[in-house]
Amino acid sequence: MEITENKTEDKTVEAGVPVEANAALVVVDVQKGFDDAEFWGRRDNPAAEENMAALIERWQETGRPVVFVRHDSAKAGSPLAPGAEGNAFKDVVEARRGKGAGPELLVTKSVNSAFYGEPDLDAWLQGAGIGQLVIVGIQTNMCNETTARMGGNLGYDVLFPLDAMHTFDLAGPFGWTLTAEELTRATAVSLHGGAFARVVTTEQVLAGAGPLASVA
User: Tell me: the pLDDT tens digits for 3-19?
Assistant: First the structure.
């Protein structure tokens, strides 16, 4: 991921990316079930939740809309199944829900894309005149990537702060396996290189979102 840098007082500062005043933050599947290391395996990016929290708080402070997405798994034995303890949001999300000055939406789904959930995310965004999305959450190469791809196809300007999400090591066909870091890089290259989304950092988004006074 290429980052434009400015030098200020001998410190490297990432240049901000423009964030619209009504850009929606889409927080995908930040649920307790993903803390089950025996089920999911090894994860990457231990700073993901801290960066998610910073973005949620900035969105709430500035009155921008926040969409919380919950995965209600239909797979037997899934930690994310409805009624399971793991279906609940992690504290980093639950403690912040309902605290913002702007609109908030809860979407539930049982597939990868947040656009195939209830209520209809695209209809809600279109009704509010929202054209830009910032996607964070879990997992980078699964529901986050699928939502970003579909968002891009639907014509949204999608920002994908790669350090505000995480994924897990994964086994595939032919005996192939990829680490979480390799999967994250593959997602970033596919989305950015394929023009589905702009892959950025949390710092760039925060810099572009600005304080409350600048978006009033």
Answer: 434 433 434 557 899 99
Q: By three-state DSSP, how is residue 189 classified?
A: helix
Backbone angles phi, psi at 215, to 5 degrees: -115, 5
Of the candidates 17, 25, 48, 65, which has an alpha carbon nearest to the alpha carbon of residue 205?
A: 17
- Contact in structure between 139 and 162 (CB atoms under 8 Å): no
Q: Using one digit for the tens of pLDDT, what is the confidence trace for 168-213?
A: 999 999 999 999 999 999 999 999 999 999 999 999 999 999 875 4
Q: Are 180 and 142 spatial neighbours (Cβ–Cβ below 8 Å)?
A: no
Report whether 204 contacts 6 (CB < 8 A). Answer: no
Helices (H), 19-154: 37-40, 48-61, 91-94, 121-127, 145-153
Sign of CA dihedral 45, 82, 123, 90: negative
Give the phi and the psi of residue 17 in degrees, each rounded to 5: -110, 140
CA 111 to chain centre: 16
Beta bridge partners of 89: 31
